Amino acid sequence: VHFQQTHLGEDGKPLKPDGVVGPNTWWALFNPSGPGQKQGIGDKTERYQDIIPDGLPHERLAVLEQALLIYTAGTREVPDGSNTGDGVTKFHEWFGMRPAPWCAMAFCWIVYQALGRLPWNQKQAHVATLWRLCKGLGMAKHLSSDYAPRPGDGFVMVHANDTGHIGIVVRVSANGRFLDVFEGNSGNRFALRRRRVGTGDHVGYINFLRDEKTAPTFKRGLTGE
């Protein structure tokens, strides 16, 4: 399931995380990196103004700028599937851990670099545990709530077996149904993916800045629109 949560199929769309090895998952298993996993969005739009929306407050902008640095550096695993190499190892070193799935590590590292602190007060490499921790702190916003995500929020997926995947919301579509998300450990790289709200075990968002009562004024629209 974790493999499906973090890879694209031959059609360039995120795999359905159902544990079933269908045609798209088979294709991804034989093509876990390279052009097939780089496609989607963002690979031809590297200009700052094409990715980070206008109108963000300082701290949200700082988070996305840190994520953009990781993205434009081409951060990826070397060799594929190793959870190490080419910019990935620093996340493990910061955590003091051996190589392991690193989406939550990258998320924590980026937030710390941007803010100089972790609002949830501890390094956490396990997505489901981080989600529960943020729930206890009032930062987790479940899909069942009326919360509308904004750039800089954590985008969280949690599966029934307690695995998960996390990224950072970059852009929100005008209708609020689609998001562009920076994701670590996605196709063996730090990627920019398009996600449909509520699919793929998407459970909600982490608003670690606790600014949900402010009216968002950021520019809406997905990358390339």
Span of the ends, CA to CA: 31 Å
Largest sheet report: 6 strands, antiparallel
Strand content: 15-25%
Number of strands: 6
Shape: globular
Task: Find the structural class using helix and strand composition.
Answer: alpha+beta
Strand order of the largest sheet: 1-6-2-3-4-5
Q: Approximately how much helix is present in the residues?
A: 25-40%
Given as residue ranges, the uncertain stretches (5+ residues, pLDDT < 50) are 42-46
SSE string = HHHHHHHHEEEEEE
Q: Count the DSSP helices.
A: 8
Mean pLDDT figure: 89
Produce the secondary structure layout:
Layout: H1 2-5, H2 23-30, H3 35-38, H4 48-51, H5 58-72, H6 89-95, H7 103-115, H8 127-136, E1 140-142, E2 154-158, E3 164-172, E4 178-183, E5 191-196, E6 202-206
Antiparallel strand pairs: 1-6, 2-3, 2-6, 3-4, 4-5
Kindly list the characteristics that best describe this protein.
225 residues, alpha+beta, 8 helices, 6 strands, 29% helix, globular
In words, what does this structure look like?
The model is unreliable at 42-46 (pLDDT under 50). The protein starts with a helix and ends in a 19-residue tail after the last strand. The protein contains 8 helices and 6 strands. The protein is an alpha+beta fold and 225 residues long. A 6-stranded antiparallel beta sheet has the order 1-6-2-3-4-5, covered by helices on one side. It has helices at 2-5, 23-30, 35-38, 48-51, 58-72, 89-95, 103-115, 127-136, and strands spanning 140-142, 154-158, 164-172, 178-183, 191-196, 202-206.
Summarize the structure.
The chain has 8 helices and 6 strands. The chain is α+β, with helices and mostly antiparallel strands.
